[in-house]
Amino acid sequence: MRLFAAFAVTVLLGLVGCSPATEGDGANDGEGPADYPYTVVTTTGMVRDIVEHVAGEQANVTALMRAGVDPHLYSPTRGDVNEILEADIVFYNGLMLEGRMGDLFVRAARRGLPIYPVTEMLDPEVLLVLDEETDYTDPHVWMDVSLWSQAVDAVADSLAEYDPIHAEDYRENASAYRAELDALHGYAQEATATIPANQRTMITAHDAFSYFGRAYGLDVVGVQGLSTESSAGLSDINRLVDRIVENEIAAVFAESSVPNQNIRALIDGAGSRGHTVTIGGTLYSDAMGPDGTYEGTYMGMIDHNVTTITRALGGEAPQGGFQGKLTPSR
Asked: What phi and psi values does residue 134 have, to the nearest 5 degrees?
């Protein structure tokens, strides 16, 4: 997989080097797109959601990574190469979420392609640094709605630079969307605050919820590490089983984009020691829900997570979630 990813990146960089877009000093010299709606390509669904809200009717927005796709393991395809080269502007998460693709985008931007990380305006002081030696930063910033809301302004500024004619529209759209996200953040704070003090430990398939835990006052533990490329050993499983049993934790959480064999191992391990623990629900971590559903939007993704976590850990939240739109559990 890594060899294929490296090959794909090499091919893309070679194609970018031949692209007419690299001959100038920018994408369009500030004159705006040649046609409307222009084409925007994004990496994840969460990034696409921001761009759709901010760009409005001025752009057609697509995401390379579909529902259930893990960005940590994603390898660009030839189709992705074509989509990127044919796009008018590209947005990605940044903070190394996209792995090799992140380096690719930085290098392509230096050749004149309009490619932007949506996290570029975040204050480094608010980011979670996981390794002081390498300065490796947790990229899952969308799990804190107040942080992800700041990425909205980064998209608005980038689109305003690319298409100055509609700059005011982009900023107005961004302001309206941020107001919606502020309300969602408030719901997350209120709902999670109802979780009893002795149940505020949240065990998930991989370490994608640290920003969520910090924002909403939960102790978060991932079976796997920050990236799903890491693996959990028997000692990791046993350590978490000890914690589950000792603290009488009633629920653990699977993730839609991560295989759940490690979560099942926790359940079996706790059961062998006489403690019953269940799957409290499947959370959306690195990918949103299916396209065309409420959970397939950023608002629905977070609403689902907050509501599922709160109810599973003994807190109070409406079954239909913040807006009463959540898909009923089967």
From this structure: -95, -10
